[in-house]
Structures are given as structure tokens and as C-alpha cells.
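User: Let's play a game. I give you a shape written as C-alpha cells, and you guess the letters that built it. Ready? Here's round one.
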């Protein structure tokens, strides 16, 4: 039955209202309050896993200081909390951030198809209903009603987890029909199951089994844990002793924040020690267990895993309750392969029989990623095993979709918190840049491996159906919280692997439009225009690593005021223009000035300028550039004389080794470690501008700080400096262009400062000497920087030069 209601559009559609979905929604409510958001939950209640599982003793297997959200720390005394306590925490958090009002229950996402033309998802949703009790007394998952509705969404944040809620994994054992008792899976625990006085066999050795054993014993059952393979089980305090001391000093709120950091680092340290020294770690665990087990316990048989500590997840038991159950005599362990059911219980491969009234199959999950939804891009089905995870947040070839999978060696939420922060940063970045779509694109021949490096059986059974991961960043699905925090929270937001798309015009800073065009060579250029449409066109080309905002407003406005149509593009690899896929030269290659095979050249950047003229329908233009932009301008004039009205080369050079060499102090600054975040970028850019300006006309730090911040926000440095390095590689690839300059016939003005520390004044002199008939002007005291006090003189010189061209034969009417 199809509904005919109007199609609703959401900015972000979150699939699932569990731990990850609520966390993502809270983050968006904090960072993006103006966005339209909804959480679609197929069940009738929020909480996900923590509402689904109702078995006795349900609890986290990670401390709640790291399992809780970073923006709302865990305040309770117990570090290992039970399921109801966690569910209350989730509900309280959702209510505090207003997320509880955004959840739409009994709605399951069936399919989603991304439209590249419209830059949004077309989503099909089925309404569900709660079915009646199952024959075994459990409460089944909701079923579809056959009623569908359609939505569109700019983004999908898939927080559906990685396993099926309606079907847990149970081994196929013959003879189930002969067994006289009940068979129960923890994922669907019957509400009417009473275990007091009954014999209960728990098949499994993971966290669920280790939790169930003491809980069932406490309820009066006689419990036998039947395991095929032993696991590492370690007692820990239910209340962290460090937290207990802190709480009385700084209070619950600050204790939660401090302990989140302490616990995350402690988890990582323990995992690292176990991986590096597994034999020593095994000995320590064995010593702790030996003191905890009852007398006569066969430690070598039942607690002797055939793998190293943390090769699979270690089972932590609060206050050693599992071992207490063993010591009480209410619980025991049996190790061996389960082969079949009998009338009275289960039989092992050894022939032994474990008698039971109830058998609990705590044998794991059935893996299912993305909630089982069908995914398409422009109508083509997405084959998940052919995709690769990008930063553990997105999938290659799938635009505008994030997914949530946490850590397997630490608290799940640690990773979820980081990836939701990265997702929020990405949305902000796209807003500022006018982008409407983002898609990770894998490089050719990317080596891959399974998505999860985890030995649990339920994971290993499903690896072939899951996406893949790469072998190095950003395609590596890391399990290192500290490294991920550095990358996802504070590192460069985007790189050459994340491609953006958007409409051709977006309003930029101060209402000036940023325009876009994709050239015939595939390069996408961003540009701005000032002045009258019918004015003589003047193209201004920026310097190394600089975007179009690097031209002083006083200068561009002065040209526009005199009737010129001022066109400022972002060069390739800067601002909002394309990031190239060509090789990035190393610092050594940059320092030596050696060309890198496969690098683009100055001539290629000149072709971009001509392509922009073609796009604008301009036959010719005045071409002007500073520094690297001057080199590009020279190349346009040399190789495209029919498109060049005049050439103005500012603080630039010819590429000849003996001309225009940078000062050693400047080279050291260029070789500095790239900025990792906005704060570092602004600080480094201000320092560089002050250095380039010199002492006669010093740069104003406050002004430069504002300009640097605006440049960062436009995307001047989203790639850790690789774009600037590739631009420098273009200079090195082009080498000495003196011979090309000798063929320039356009009227040429060369301007240089006598205090330039990056392009020595000899570079300007060499440029003027190479171009016959050019005019060379040196401005005393000027560095590699256009100080406000110098701009009027620059403007006078430039407009005089442009005006003189009008008097020449063949000039524009």
C-alpha cells in the first residue's frame, strides 16, 4: 500500500536510535542546530542493543567512563554498569539534548538511492508493527506492514550497528526436537523464564556467557558453562579506585571527564602490552586467575586459550563475580565441542553429556551491516564487499553517507564519538565551501584486507559480506583511539581521496559569489569576479599555496572602480579548486629543486587560465600574477599570445637557478611541519606573512590572523600542505623558462621589491631582461608582501600599464 503524502526532505537522516544514533543526533544538535534531523527506529523504543537484550545480568563489557559520551560524562559510581542503568543514561541524554523528540518509531529504512544530479538520497521506508509473543515466550522483533513512505535526505548517518536484531547466531545441532527442556538465545530472552532450581547449560565463552553464568547462579540455577574454546577472563573492580578518590575531590562531573581520559589511555596501554609481550601478559592473567578460582579447578583445561591476550576481546568481570559463582559451587565449566542435543541435555564430542533443563546458546551474533538496507547510487546497486572504508566513517564510491562501527579492542563509543565529531566538521566544511556532495575515491590498485581484524567467530563467519579496509591511512580501519583522535578530531579534515561536488555558484565571504567551472581537462576551478561585466578583463593569479583572497581588497576594488572586470581564480591545488592526483614531491626533492616524474607543470596551470577564459567567453584578457601566479602569467603570455592583452609579473622570476633564489631563513620556514589544524595554520601563516613583509612595511598580525582564518575556512590548507608541495613541484618540473619568456610579445610590466626574502630581486631583473621591451620597476622597502602603504603605488603602476595598452594597435575597443 503506497502512501501519497508529500515527500519530506531531511538534512540528515539517522538510521537507528541506539547508542550510536543518539550520540550522532546529540552532536548535530550541538554543532548544527539549524539542520533538519530525524532518527528512524524500526523498534518501538530507543536504546538499540541496550533495549534489545533482556537476559539476566546484562551489562557493559567496557567501563562506562569511556563507554559514555564525551559531551555527557558518566557520573555514577559503578564503572561497569548494568543494562538498565545504561538504558537510563541513553534516555536521559536524548532528553537533555532534545533528541527524544526526533525519533520516529516503527519505521525501517528498506532502501536508499543517491541521485548525483540532485545531490540527495531517495529513501524508501517501511512502517513496522510489534508482533505478538513468540511460542517460546520471547518478544520478537517488529515486522513489516507493507505500508511504505518516501523521504529524501542530504546525508544518511547509518547507526544500525553490525548485527541483526531479529536473528542471533546459534550452531546447528542435531536433536533439538528430542530435548525436553527449553532452548534460549540471549538475544531474545523469554520474559516468563524462571531458572530457580533448574539446571542451565550456557553454550559459549564470550562476554555474554561470562555475564550470564553468575547472574543465573544468583537467581538459584545450577549453571554449567560449556565452551568449545577457552577465553581470557579477568576480574576487575566494579568501582574504579582512582575514580572513588577523585569523586570526593572534584565531584562526579569532573571525575567522569578525567576518568574517560585515564581509562582510554589505560585500555590502550593494556592492549599494547598484551600485543607486544603476550607471554608475559598471559602469565600475569594466569596468576590473577589462579587466586580467583576454587581449589582443584583445572586451570589448564578451562582457562587456557590457544591464542594471545587481546587477539580476541578479553572478558572483564566486575568484582570477580564469575569466579565467585565457581567458588560457590553453583557454577562449573566444561570444555569441549558440543555435537548434539539429547533428551536430557547436550552431548560433547568426548561422549560426555551435560544434563540441563534449559540450554542457552550464547554463541554470538549474525552480522549485518547498514541495517540490511539496499544501497544504490544513481540506480546502480552498491556491492559492499567491493567498497573500502574511508577513515572508518564513509565507504568508497558512496556519497553523503557515514556509518558507525566502534572499536573491538576498547569501548565502542570512543570511536563513535570521534567519527561523529569528524562528520560534524565535514558538514561545516561543506557549508563554507558550497559543496553538496562528498565521496571517497580509492586510488588505483589499493591493497585491501578484511574490515575487522578480530578473531571472534561471528566476525570471521561474515567477513566476505563486509566492506574492506586498506593497509594505510586514510583507508585503514584503525583500532587505536589515540591515533584516531589525532586524525579525526584535530587532523586535516580532507585529503585528495575525498572528492567534493556542488552547484556552480555559491555565495562566499561578504556576499561575493564563489563561482565554479569544470574545465575540459577535468580541473574544477573556483573563481570570483568584481567590477562591470563589460569592463576589460584582468585575471589575477595568486602565489604559492595562496588562494584568491590573498589579493588585497584595496587593490581589487581599485581596479574594479576604474572599470576593469577583475577575475580571480583559485589555482589548482589551492582554495576551493581541484586537489590534483599527481605525485607529491618529498621535502628533499623540493629542497633540491628536482622535478618529480608525473608532476604537472607551470604550462598546465597556464592552460587552466585559458580554459577559464573559454568558459567566460573571453577572447583576450590582461594577465597578472604574483610569485607563482607571476610564473603562470608569464607562461600564458608565452604560449597563448593571442589570448593575452598584457602581462604584469609581480615579485616573480624565470625559474633560472641563478635568479631569484630564496633566503635560507625562508627555506627553513617552507620546510616546517605542515599545520594540523586551524589554530596551527593561522599561527604559521601570520608568522610567514610577517617574515615575507620585512621591516620597512611590516605586516599587521591582527589583520593577517583574520585573513589566515578566512583562508583556512575556504580550504586553503585542507590537505596538510600537499597541494602547496605539488605547486612547488610544478615550478621544479618547469625549470628555467627564460627561453619561453624571450618569445613574449605582449606589453609587459615587471614589479619587484628590493627586500623580497623568497624571490630575490634578481628574479625580477632576470624576468625583465628576458622579455624584450618590458618595463622593470623596483619598489624600495617592499618585501614579498603587498602592504597597504604600498598598494596605492602598485595600483598606480598597474593601471598606468593597462591604460597604455589601450593606445596600442589591436587593443580592445
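Assistant: Ready! My guess for every position:
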Amino acid at each position: 500500500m503506497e502512501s501519497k503524502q508529500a515527500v519530506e526532505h531531511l538534512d540528515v537522516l539517522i538510521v537507528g536510535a541506539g547508542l550510536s544514533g543518539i550520540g550522532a543526533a546529540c552532536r548535530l544538535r550541538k554543532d548544527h542546530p539549524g539542520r533538519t534531523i530525524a532518527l528512524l527506529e524500526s523498534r518501538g523504543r530507543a536504546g538499540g542493543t541496550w533495549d534489545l537484550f533482556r537476559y539476566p545480568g546484562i551489562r557493559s563489557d567496557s567501563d562506562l567512563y569511556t563507554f559514555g559520551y564525551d559531551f555527557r560524562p558518566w557520573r555514577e559510581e559503578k564503572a561497569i554498569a548494568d543494562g538498565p542503568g545504561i538504558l537510563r543514561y541513553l534516555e536521559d541524554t536524548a532528553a537533555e539534548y532534545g533528541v527524544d523528540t526526533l525519533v520516529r518509531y516503527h519505521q525501517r529504512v528498506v532502501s536508499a538511492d543517491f541521485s548525483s544530479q540532485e545531490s540527495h538520497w531517495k529513501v524508501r521506508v517501511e512502517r513496522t508493527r510489534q508482533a505478538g509473543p513468540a511460542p517460546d515466550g520471547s518478544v520478537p522483533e517488529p515486522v513489516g506492514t507493507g505500508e511504505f513512505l518516501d523521504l529524501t535526505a542530504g546525508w544518511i548517518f547509518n547507526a544500525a550497528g553490525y548485527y541483526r536484531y531479529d536473528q542471533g547466531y546459534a550452531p546447528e545441532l542435531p536433536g533439538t526436537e528430542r530435548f525436553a527442556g527449553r532452548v534460549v538465545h540471549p538475544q531474545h530472552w523469554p520474559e516468563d523464564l524462571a531458572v530457580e532450581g533448574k539446571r542451565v547449560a550456557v553454550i559459549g565463552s564470550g562476554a555474554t556467557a561470562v555475564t550470564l553464568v553468575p547472574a543465573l547462579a544468583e537467581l538459584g540455577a545450577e549453571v554449567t558453562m560449556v565452551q568449545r574454546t577457552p577465553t581470557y577472563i579477568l576480574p576487575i573492580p566494579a568501582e574504579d579506585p582512582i575514580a572513588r578518590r577523585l569523586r570526593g575531590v572534584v565531584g562526579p562531573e569532573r571525575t567522569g571527564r578525567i576518568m574517560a581520559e585515564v581509562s582510554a589511555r589505560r585500555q590502550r596501554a593494556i592492549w599494547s602490552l598484551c600485543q607486544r609481550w603476550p607471554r608475559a601478559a598471559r602469565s600475569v592473567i594466569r596468576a590473577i586467575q589462579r587466586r580467583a578460582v576454587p581449589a582443584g579447578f583445572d586451570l589448564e583445561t578451562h582457562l587456557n586459550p590457544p591464542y594471545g591476550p587481546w587477539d580476541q576481546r578479553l572478558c572483564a568481570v566486575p568484582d570477580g563475580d564469575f569466579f565467585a559463582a565457581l567458588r560457590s559451587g553453583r557454577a562449573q565449566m566444561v570444555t569441549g565441542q558440543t555435537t548434539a542435543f539429547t533428551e536430557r541435555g547436550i552431548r560433547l564430542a568426548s561422549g560426555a553429556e551435560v544434563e540441563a533443563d534449559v540450554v542457552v546458546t550464547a554463541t554470538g551474533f549474525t552480522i549485518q551491516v547498514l541495517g540490511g538496507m539496499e544501497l544504490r547510487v544513481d540506480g546502480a546497486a552498491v556491492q559492499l564487499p567491493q567498497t573500502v572504508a574511508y577513515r572508518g566513517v564513509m565507504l568508497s564510491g558512496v556519497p553523503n553517507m557515514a556509518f558507525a562501527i566502534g572499536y573491538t579492542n576498547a569501548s565502542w563509543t570512543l570511536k563513535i564519538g570521534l567519527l561523529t565529531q569528524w562528520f560534524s566538521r565535514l558538514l561545516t566544511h561543506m557549508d563554507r565551501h558550497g559543496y553538496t556532495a562528498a565521496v571517497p575515491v580509492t586510488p588505483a590498485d589499493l591493497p585491501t584486507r578484511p574490515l575487522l581484524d578480530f578473531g571472534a567467530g561471528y566476525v570471521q563467519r561474515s567477513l566476505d559480506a563486509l566492506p574492506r579496509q586498506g593497509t594505510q591511512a586514510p583507508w585503514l580501519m584503525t583500532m587505536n583511539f589515540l591515533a584516531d583522535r589525532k586524525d579525526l578530531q584535530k587532523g586535516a579534515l580532507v585529503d585528495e581521496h575525498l572528492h567534493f561536488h556542488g552547484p556552480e555558484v555559491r555565495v562566499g565571504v561578504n556576499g561575493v559569489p564563489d563561482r565554479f567551472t569544470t574545465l575540459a581537462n577535468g580541473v574544477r576551478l573556483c573563481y570570483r569576479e568584481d567590477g562591470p561585466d563589460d569592463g576589460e578583463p584582468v585575471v589575477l593569479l595568486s602565489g604559492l599555496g595562496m588562494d584568491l583572497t590573498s589579493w588585497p581588497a584595496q587593490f581589487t576594488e581599485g581596479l574594479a572602480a576604474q572599470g576593469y572586470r577583475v577575475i580571480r581564480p583559485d589555482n589548482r591545488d589551492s582554495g576551493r579548486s581541484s586537489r590534483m592526483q599527481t605525485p607529491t614531491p618529498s621535502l628533499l626533492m623540493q629542497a633540491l629543486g628536482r622535478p618529480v616524474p608525473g608532476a604537472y607543470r607551470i604550462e598546465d596551470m597556464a592552460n587552466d587560465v585559458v580554459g577559464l577564459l573559454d568558459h567566460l567567453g573571453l577572447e583576450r584578457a590582461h594577465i597578472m600574477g604574483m610569485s607563482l601566479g607571476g610564473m603562470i602569467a608569464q607562461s600564458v603570455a608565452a604560449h597563448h599570445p593571442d589570448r593575452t592583452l598584457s602581462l604584469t609579473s609581480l615579485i616573480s622570476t624565470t625559474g633560472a637557478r641563478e635568479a631569484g633564489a630564496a633566503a635560507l631563513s625562508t627555506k627553513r620556514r617552507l620546510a616546517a611541519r605542515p599545520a594540523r589544524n586551524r589554530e596551527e595554520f593561522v599561527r604559521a601563516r601570520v608568522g610567514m606573512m610577517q617574515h615575507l613583509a620585512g621591516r620597512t612595511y611590516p605586516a599587521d598580525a591582527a589583520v593577517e590572523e583574520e585573513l589566515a582564518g578566512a583562508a583556512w575556512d575556504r580550504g586553503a590548507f585542507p590537505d596538510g600542505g600537499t597541494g602547496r608541495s605539488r605547486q612547488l613541484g610544478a615550478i621544479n618540473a618547469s625549470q628555467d623558462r627564460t627561453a619561453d619568456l624571450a618569445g613574449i610579445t605582449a606589453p609587459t610590466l615587471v614589479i619587484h621589491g628590493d627586500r623580497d626574502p623568497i624571490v630575490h630581486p634578481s628574479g625580477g631583473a632576470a624576468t625583465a631582461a628576458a622579455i624584450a621591451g618590458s618595463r622593470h620597476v623596483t619598489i624600495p622597502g617592499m618585501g614579498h608582501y603587498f602592504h597597504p602603504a604600498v598598494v596605492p603605488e602598485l595600483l598606480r603602476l598597474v593601471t598606468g600599464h593597462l591604460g597604455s595598452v589601450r593606445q596600442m594597435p589591436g587593443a580592445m575597443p
